[in-house]
Amino acid sequence: MTENVAEWKKNEVSEISSKIRESDVIGIVDIEGIPARQLQEMRANLRGKADLKVSRNTLLRIALNEAGVDEEFKKYIKDQAALLFSDINSFELNRIIEENKTRAPASAGDIAPSDIEVEEGPTQLQPGPVLGDLQKAGIPAEIDGGDVVIKENKVVKEEGEEIDALLADMLSKLGIEPIEVGLELKATQEDGVIFEPEALEIDEEEYRDKVVRAYQDTLKLSIEASYPTEETIGKLIQKAKTDSVKLGYEAEVLEPDILKDIISDAKKKAGSLASSLGSDFETNENE
Predict the structure, then answer these.
(1) Of 36, 40, 81, 158, which residue is most buried, by most CB within 10 angstroms?
(2) What are the backbone dihedrals phi and psi of residue 111, each rounded to the nearest 5 degrees, phi first?
(3) Gap between the Cα atoms of 89 and 25, Å rounded
(4) Is there a single domain that holds both residue 80 and residue 159?
(5) What DSSP assignment string belongs to 38-88?
(6) Cα 46 vs. chain centroid, distance in angstroms?
(7) What CA–CA distance (Å, rounded) separates 151 from 122?
């Protein structure tokens, strides 16, 4: 930075670059459209897990450059960006960001993040001019028994469509909050690796099941291959004992552990033979 640069900018860059060097994970988030009050709430919710730093995009890029961050990472700084500094892994950081998102009423000009649907049923609205406004906004409303009701389920805006002022006002009156408000993660960098949000969105239960299955398959393979590890040694010893007893039994080796099985088996065979002979003897007598 040149000598003509304001002192506060130098201090800002120095502070940010220091935080970058100290942090295990750096995230770039989009904060566009988030009201100041909700941004403060999000900052508070992240306390102890991540620090949010809002600054000019130019200063953020300079700080990343001074901290030696990969040039590729800087391309994610656009629109209204901010940096996140954290020591938790990228997957956990993404999960926390998603959990902290809230719903908010729509404003004129907002883009529907998904299909916006009004549902059939009564409303809390009183009959009057609002009925005409609802109908003008494309909401199928009518008076039923002195109450304003929605006649049927209807998608009033499809995903990606712009919400006009009248519809935004009517949705607010109906208590519908279609806009998701929260930090929008653009990318993280961890151990020199850049993660985009799509790579961080995993089904935890499915992932846990895969890990368990992989562990079980590995354990089974290790036992079949007689590969001793801390986890398999007990089962291998038990398997070896079982196999040796089985082999000794078949070869009629008179070892104590095997002898009792041979005697037990002989008793069973003798009992079965006696039972069979007794049955044949009774049959011959009857004849």
Answers:
(1) 81
(2) -100, 130
(3) 7
(4) no
(5) HHHHHHHHHTTTEEEEE--HHHHHHHHHHTT--HHHHTT--SSEEEEEESS
(6) 17
(7) 9
Q: Tell me: do 124 and 259 sit in the same domain.
A: no
* Amino acid (1-letter code) at residue 245: V
In this structure, what token pair is assigned to residue 105? 């009423």
DSSP 121-158: EE-SPPSSHHHHHHHHTT--EEEETTEEEE-S-EEEE-
Q: Do 90 and 32 lie in a common domain?
A: yes
Residue 132 forms part of a structural domain: yes
Task: Look up residue 155 and give its amino acid.
Answer: V
Rounded CA Rg of the chain: 36
Answer whether 0.85 is exceeded by the pTM. Answer: no
Q: Tell me the average confidence (pLDDT) per consecutive run of 10 residues in the chain, 287 residues long.
A: 78 96 96 86 91 95 94 94 96 92 90 95 94 96 94 96 97 94 94 92 74 82 78 76 64 59 67 63 49
Torsion of CA 100, 104, 107, 113, to 10 degrees: 60
Give the integer Cα–Cα distance in Å for 59 and 15: 11
